[in-house]
Amino acid sequence: MTAVLRAEGLWKSFGEQPVLRGVSLELSRHEVVALIGASGSGKSTLLRCLNLLEGIDDGRILLGDQDISDPRVDADRVRSRLGTVFQSYNLFPHLSVLDNVTLASRVVRRMPRRDAEERGRALLDRVGLGAFAGEHPDRLSGGQQQRAALARALATDPDVLLLDEITSALDPELVGEVLGLVRQLAEDGATILMATHEMAFARDVAHRVVFLDEGRVLEEGPPAQVFGAPREARTREFLTRFRA
Fold first, then answer.
1. Fewer Cβ atoms within 10 A, N terminus or C terminus of the chain?
2. Residue 75 CB partners (closer than 8 Å, separation 6+)
3. What is the rounded average pLDDT of the residues 9-26?
4. Exposed/middle/buried for 177, CB within 10 Å: 0-12, 13-18, 19+?
């Protein structure tokens, strides 16, 4: 399969503290990859580097055949091809839900407002929020805000979805509704790289699991192998805390 997104030997430090230590991974079209690891292992930093929200110290990032780590690239246009959803929603509170969803299409992609809003309403219907298009985010529950953030990420028809612990800020009863939507997106053929602590979801939905430990890819493989017969002692140690 052709790699849609590829990281080659990424290094990233904050001050004297290295956070990513030569991370390499690739994501094929229609593939769902779950990124797992302890808090502080570098998962969020990796996603922020892939989305050009953080610069890298060394290595290369390719989106298709384009080197997007080249400082000359148009970062906003690249980000419109990488739909990103964070754990904290990051919806603009002063805009309606529909305006949040359509903003990148109108500003970055220069889509006419009528066309952007037509697509935005269709996406809100898809995530079960059609009736809330005119509301502001503070009128939505956490789960609804996260579904709106997913709709916003899908609005520019991105090549890849980058999902960063999108259920960690939700009440337990709201986790299922958001994961159910991600499961549907995966079944529909979306290409997804998802940092998550939801091990059962990663086991059931991901095509491949990548275990990040202290800024390194320590193990990767199909869910059955990583969860059922991990090769590395550190992987086994990490996974024991999620087993009943």
1. C
2. 52
3. 96
4. middle
